Structure formats: structure tokens, C-alpha cells
Amino acid sequence: MKASLIISVYKNIRFLKPVLDSLHFQTEKDFETIISEDGESPEMKEFIAGYPFEMPYKHITRKDEGWRKNHCLNSAIRASEADWLIFIDGDCVLHPRFIEMHLHHAEVNKILAGKRVKLDDYMTEYILDNSDNIRNLQQILLRKMFFGKGKIKFIEEGIFISPESILRIIPRNRKNDKLVGCNMSFSKEAIYAINGFDEDYKLPAVGEDYDLAWRLKAAGFQLVSMRNLAVQYHLSHPEGYNQDFNLNLCRQKQEINEFVCKNGLDKH
Predict the structure, then answer these.
(1) Residues 73, 43: contact at Cβ < 8 Å?
(2) CATH 3.90.550.10 at 3-255, yes or no
(3) Domain chopping of the chain, boundaries
(4) Does residue 178 carry a pLDDT above 90?
């Protein structure tokens, strides 16, 4: 397989369904799906067992002991069979060329960094009502860009621009020096070079993207923008975390340049 698509989930089956449905529309079919569940929900297990996957899949779980996403991601990496790893969250529906674009730009020394458009409640329900509506999102978002976007955030990130298009210069000139954990990809060589995700982080945010970015850069890898290429649509839900603890922990690790974490894929 060309890639392992790792999907982080926690209980929300209603959101996961259209995410999995969007995989049926992918132009690139040569990948496996790994559902990385931070918990052991019987309902999630039943749903995944009954879902009509087209490609090979695995379901990785762990005991629910609070936020342990990084532990789950490391388990998913160990279970993956491809050399290229793509990471998304279970609330991010994919554009049909999402997998294709990540693989098209894949190079061992590169870390591919995408963005997401944050849909409002209306557009979220539009997708949840019928996954076939995913096919209409590009046209709808283009209209909304010019005639009122409503409560959609970062709508410009939801517009796919093909590398074959006369507008291909636009994504080439759109820089991105940050990672978001729901839209990134890299080689196994890269993630093993820094010993995986740091399991010292036990609260959401920072630990699975901001921390990862500085450690990968310190190890010599280059962040490459995938804006308007690897497009995904984030379903609306309440957000907001206190990031102070994680940020302080990250600063401590940066001060001693601990870019190879001790509590990762291997335990030191």
C-alpha cells in the first residue's frame, strides 16, 4: 500500500460516518485505514465492524483513561504497513483528491502540512444528512466566497486548486509553517527519527501538532504547505482548551532541545 491513513476518534460515530464515506470518493485507492480510538467504546466497535470499507482497515483501541491521543497515535504507527503516514481527525471530511495530493507531494525529507475549512452548523448538517452532498461542497463554498460565507471560518482553505490548473501558482505561493494534527503527513523515517508522538502530553492540543512541528524541524525535516491541495472540511462542534500546561511543557522540552522524545514509540 502507498499510504496508511490514521484517523483519530473518540466516541463520535455520527461524525466518523461521513469521514469514512468520503474515503469512497477518493481518486487514490491504494491505502489502508487505521482508526485510532482513544477509548474502547462498544458502540464504536460495532459501527466499525459493520461499516462497508472498500480498502483494508484496522481498529486500534486502548482503555479510556482520559486524553491519551498520542499513545493511540504511536500504536497506530506501529500497526501501519505503509511507509507514508497521513493523519486526520474523525471530524474532518476529505476532498476526493486528498489522499492523491498527499502522496503526489510525498518525499522522505518533507513534512506535508495542510489546513482545514471550519464549516458552520448548517453546512455540517448538510453533510450529516447525506454523505453524497460531499460532492457538492466545492461549488457551494465557491458561491459562498462571493455571496456570503455565513459562519464558515477559513473558507479559502476549503477551495481545491488542482496542480494542473492555470491557478496552480496560488497554492505554490501560500506558505504554511505550522502543523495541524488533523491534516499532515510524513514518512515513517521522519517520525521514527524523533521517536514518535510524545506521550508526556496528556491534554488536547500542542502535543500532537505544535510540539511535533518543532521536533521534526530540529531533526532536519522541512515543512511543505498543502494549502488548497489537501483540502478537508471540519464539521462544526464546540471547541476550546486551556493550553497553558501543554505550552509550558513544550517550552521546557525546547529549552533542553529534547526533539527526540523519551516517552514515545520507544521508552527511554
Answers:
(1) no
(2) yes
(3) 3-255
(4) no
